[in-house]
Every structure is written in C-alpha cells, then in structure tokens.
Amino acid sequence: MCSSDLDVAFIGAEPKRAEQIAFTTAYLEIPATYLVPPGSPIRAVDEVDRPGVRVATSARSAYDLYLSRSLKHAQLVRAEGIPASYELFVREKLDALSGLLPRLVSDVTRLPGARILEGKFTAVQQAIGAPKPRARAAAYLQSFVDEIKASGLVAELIERHGSKGVNVAP
Predict the structure, then answer these.
(1) Which is it for the CA torsion 16, 20, 26, 28, positive or negative?
(2) Which residues have CB under 8 Å from 162's CB, separation 6+?
(3) Higher-confidence residue: 56 or 10?
(4) 62 or 53, which is more confident?
(5) For residue 150, is pLDDT > 70?
(6) At a CB cut-off of 8 Å and minimum separation 6, what does 78 contact?
(7) Alpha-carbon separation of residue 100 from 8, 19, 144 (angstroms)
(8) Phi, psi at residue 25, to the nearest 5°?
(9) Does 1 or 90 have the greater pLDDT score?
(10) Nearest to residue 124, comparing CAs of 60, 43, 30?
C-alpha cells in the first residue's frame, strides 16, 4: 500500500517511510530484540551481528528496515508478516528471530528452552502519520499526540490493556 492510499496511519516512524509520510513525534516506544532457540550460544544482542548468523524478520517492518541499515555481517531472512517470521525461524532453524518485545514474550512460550535476549537493538517509535501532501493533517495530529501523552491517556491505555514491554515515548 502506498501512502496516497491512506489518510492517517498508526505506524512505526522510520526514515524510509518518512520519504512519503509526515510523522508526529512518537506516542509509544516498543523495544525490539531477538529470540534465540534452545541451546543457542548467542547471549547478548550485540552477538547477533556476526558472519554466519541468520536472522528471521518480518519483511518491511520498522525493525526490518532498521536492521537492513544496521547489520553488517548477519544475514536477514525475510517472511511476509510476523507469524510467518516465527514459522520461518522454527522451520529453517535460524539463529535468531527479530521482533517487538511484546510479541516475542508470547513467542518464547511456544518454543521450550528458547530465550529472549536482554536489551534491545532498537525501539520502534510508534507515531501517527499522514501522507506528506496533507501537511495540515500532520500538524493537527501532532497536537493530538501532544495532548494524549500530556493527559496521561497513553499511559492509562497501556495499563488498562496490560501491554507488556511498551512505554510512553519520551
């Protein structure tokens, strides 16, 4: 879907996406890290970017775009969508699964002995965006984001829905 097909999107602010979308500041921060299989010798996030390491990722996700720019040695193996990236990780016996912490917390329970690595390789800055030609909408959306953060609404919704591993963006 191209940005001209939408009016407003709640999406991870990412430099590649910002070529077409005007983003507000973030209202939510979602850490991204790795899940490793049982018995993995990988113990830390910074050990993933090594030659021979294969990392499953959800194609075109904000963290995939980040890893595409950042990884120098590890190989990204893409799947269409988050559930498919988990299935690819398991089926192909890959070295790591990249993902957002809330989803990995769920995935780790499905694979006995698997571990989530402490820390993060990035944090997705969840924001609201509008196509760049709709600059007035983007300005309105920025005031909306400022209001929902300042009022405590974002924090209240995180608490109410029991969203683990996410924070109100600074």
Answers:
(1) negative
(2) none
(3) 56
(4) 53
(5) yes
(6) 56, 57, 58, 59, 64, 85
(7) 22, 23, 25
(8) -70, 160
(9) 90
(10) 30
